[in-house]
Amino acid sequence: MKPKKLRINVSKNSELDLAYLEAIEFAKSHYENFPVLSFFVPQKIKKDVAIVYQFARQADDIADEGNFTETERIENLNKYEQDFTNSLNGKFSNPFWMALSNTIKTKNLSSNNFSKLLTAFRQDITKSRYANMEELLNYCSYSANPVGRIILELHSINDESALQYSDKICTALQITNFLQDISVDFDKQRIYLPLEELTKFNVSENIFHLKEINSNFKQMMKAQIKNMTNYFETGKNLLPFLPFGLKQQIKWTINGGEGILKKITELNYDVLNTRPKFSKMDLLKLLFQK
Fold first, then answer.
1. Number of folded domains in the chain?
2. Could you list the residue range(s) of the whole structural domain that residue 100 is in?
């Protein structure tokens, strides 16, 4: 059976329509732990979710991809931010910015959440170590939590308690991803584990070079996993605030985060030599997991 073609309620010949179509293809073509445009995303906001994802992914690529110097990355990100600011004032350097501006205005989204994401991507360029958990949580408040808040705004959910629970989930997902990608991040000269935690468990940075874990490293990872498990549990209080489709999507996402933590445990915490990830069958199982 052929997949159904996505229908968008804008003129097929308009630049806006083409920009949204390109955003949807962009979202489909990039790998994430979970599909960005899953069947749980309501048809009426699929194009909006796609354009938001494209905004974040493009900025992330500016900060991370290619053989650019730190100065060049900052300059490119500054240019991207200027294009964003201009788009909010009705000046579009290309149709992508027109579509993003249209989504922000028609869906009444807070532009501050988008600005926070750019602050986080800039920090990725200039900061490679975090002294303590407080610093890391502050980073997550810019890098992860705005994404959850944007999704809630797209569903017209603005309850303060819901936003706080969403922050817990997004922070847990972000730090879980850090635990999953320790070796990947270290290859980029970054360590997202708080240095205070390394000191507490007597773990030297040299272990990341050697890729030889020990009991101290395992205990440190175990403590981080316990902490994030508690974050996920608190975040589940968000679910009663959500409509059915979004509730299923968020449950699936939480199951995924907890699933990665479980895979790390099953690897005996050796994330320095093996990156835990999901197979298609894993994703299907997580979908039906309570």
1. 2
2. 14-126
